[in-house]
Amino acid sequence: MRILTLEFITHAFSQLLVIQNIIYMVIGVSIGMFIGAMPGLTVTLGLALVLPFTFGMSATEGIILLTGVYCAGTYSGAMTAILINTPGTPSSVTTAWDGYPLTQQGRAAEALRAALYASVIGGLISGLFLLFFAPQVAKIALRFGPPEMFSLTFVGLTVIARVSGKSPTKGLIAAAFGLLFATVGIDTVSGVLRFNFGMSFLAAGFDVIPACIGLFAIAEIFSQIEKGSKELAPEVPDAIKGHGDYTWRKLFKNKILLIKSSLIGVIVGAIPGTGGSVASFIAYDEAKRVSKEPELYGHGSLEAIAASESSNNGVTGGSLIPTFTLGIPGNSGTAIYLGALMIHGLTPGPQLFRFQGEMMYTVFLAFFVVNIIMLFLGLLACRWAVHILKIPPAILYPVVLAFCLVGGYANAGTLTGVGVSLFFGVLGYFMLRNGYPPAPMVIALILGPKVEESLRQSLILSDGDYSIFFTRPISLMFLFIVVLTTVVPIIKNTGVLKNIALPWSK
After folding, report:
1. What's the pTM?
2. Read out DSSP for 256-318?
3. pLDDT grade for 212, boundaries at 50, 70 and 90
4. Which of 208, 268, 384, 388 has the most CB atoms around it within 10 Å of its CB?
5. What are the start-end ranges of the H helices in 105-145?
6. Range with the lowest mean pLDDT among 320-334, 371-385, 433-447?
7. What DSSP line would sit under 382-420, residue for residue?
């Protein structure tokens, strides 16, 4: 693979200064922000819709347009997650846990800015890895087999214990039902239909996006209607009329958190088949574990939003690393990139850098420009987005409900998505009424299929020998992290270690 040279950098900058390319980046960011903020309209769907418009463009123009859609679409799901408790994308679920409570406290503008700034930082850090370390990171990602995937996703499942609120038992019950729902549909290993009860529309299982729409947005709408509240959130004029007092200085107080969360996003994103939701769960859990104010998590923590958003935007650059260097898409969104490259006559892999190095480094540098454009357009969007809270509930709730149902339909293209959204909406409503947190169910629903599939594949490889998880270094490392983050705190809190005289304590 050719080394990055001054010639490549000079050529890339000259391409980025072309007004036509700048316009394509602005258009891509604008489309991505709109699609990402709409419940049910995923980044993958946005990329698929934009792809046909790139056929008449050059390869460079088409790829940088898609880059704008990808980066902005990943971020903008945070806007609806914060304002109306409706994650625009699955990776924004953790943002909703703390963003919406901040909105209810009248700090919506503050939360929106924190999400935007952290997203930009995560995107820029992932861009650095994409630019300088793509081949090295891709080689590490190739070492991830089923045992490593199981251990990684199992780390994500341990978040359940820390998002269950005051009742861990109810949180575990909710997670158990989430795992049960995750088993519905075709078994990915054996190909057998499971728990569809003869209903053909359940053959594909419960889609995560309609389920999230139901558990968070529709359930919240039903709950607010029952309460008969007159306002979506307490009226705090400064939060509506102003732009929040969250500054870059406040953000950089958590610089270690931002860097660590972004790196989690890059690493998880570079592993094919994972995605932003896995990264955001792990980053959220790690941030809470080391936080000086863990009690704020789930009740309105700007620190938590920073961790969530920097990690899922760190995934954007990370997921492009195996796509460009190995021809292996990191997730469904980057699969569109793979198709775009091939449509324009380019073959992903090391040869792409050898024969199209100038174009590739133009795309890499465009990644940075796209994130800067996203910052400025995001600031404009944040200014008018908070005005959603001024809409009377009698108008707002029906409109949000309509968007949720449209989003459920658009995700699958059938009424099945609408039915799934309403089912989980009613279920989420009764869960809220009885004190069962929806977050553990969502985590189990998202990670359950990945854990099950990788577990069974691993046991097939080892002929049923569970030692495969402990004899592979990367898998063992993740399992060790599970022990550190779950078992050790439990022992520490119960005081078992206090009565043991350790050699280094003398």
Report:
1. 0.78
2. HHHHHHHHHHHHHHHSTT--HHHHHHHHHHHHHHH-S-GGGTTT--HHHHHHHHHHHHHHHHH
3. confident
4. 268
5. 108-132, 134-141
6. 320-334
7. HHHHGGGGGS-HHHHHHHHHHHHHHHHHHHHTSHHHHHH
